[in-house]
């Protein structure tokens, strides 16, 4: 990637001293340390369980709040499979033989490898930590197979890029190797559930390189309750338009107490507290853990489904669908750009729009006809205002199977001028 080279520091030299020599030589564009980053997971007691998937469908179980979830069942009514989409996971690897992952693991068409191990330079990214398999389970655990849980995408190609040996030790050089392998092997989405405090030109350039290939990068906001406006985390803090930075919410739709946040540096939130997923130390093992890592994985799964449903759209258009489709939450106001939590159904569905259709006159009564356009059987409310500030509902309904509905508003000579808008309901 851009003639990037990794060099060892000779014995007797310091990192800072060697960098200064390179910078003074005029032979390099820049020199910097090979920074270490950590995976954004905060393990709990690691209970082995088959789990309650509250993040997908929350009906108040375990002290939760009903509908404090990503509306997965409603989203799956639109689309549940992204079988032709490759999602790369820059992480600790994947347990290839896990019962809930095996049939969704990407395999190199030219061989038997199933990803890249940057630590050993092999195509066997074995997960000896567990974090990567947890992410794989959230993104793409096989759906409707009677085992474990369902990933956001029931079918998808999970490409493992092993850049971490432990949750707290992943060098930028190894992360960049994973990005390059993903870019050259057809990834459309890259999950980077990781962060660090150091700004790296090398990592930034690598992410821009995958951006030029139209690849979406989803990353986590960190698990130290930091305000990223004041304490930046990377890659979330890079100003590159293919990055989605994600905070974590709880089963009560609160911002998780350890989640990073930022009014302009974090884009949205997704569930990240007490999430159960596939684990790497057995083919039928699952554990529950917490972290913004999980939040990023939910968004990566959603992006995979969106790339399958809208294959011709750019990364900017797909990202806009994710961000425009959130559920606004009071707990997230001022904590992220959208102030909302991921909603799969809204992201997958066409936006609801209202347009003037025609003017009718029947027995001296003039009536304006408006047409609502959206996905099939979408609930909506038409609101009116005389001042664009105070809005009141004037009509509600459901679109037809064709995705349209008509609204009629009688007009009289003394009718005040009114503005109209339409909003979608869950």
Q: What is the topology, as strand order, of the major beta sheet?
A: 4-5-3-7-9-10-11
Gross morphology? globular
Q: For this structure, what is the CATH class of the largest domain?
A: Alpha Beta
Query: N-to-C SSE series?
Result: HEEHEEHEEHEEHEEEEEHHEEHEEEEEE
Total E-strand runs:
21
CATH architecture group name of the largest domain: 3-Layer(aba) Sandwich
Distance between the termini: 44 Å
Beta-strand content bin: 25-35%
The CATH homologous superfamily of the largest domain corresponds to: Peptidase S8/S53 domain
User: What's the number of structural domains?
Assistant: 2
Calculate Rg over CA atoms.
24 Å
* Percent of residues in helices: 10-25%
Q: What composes the largest sheet?
A: 7 strands, parallel
| SS element count, helices | 8
- If you consult CATH, what is the topology of the largest domain? Rossmann fold
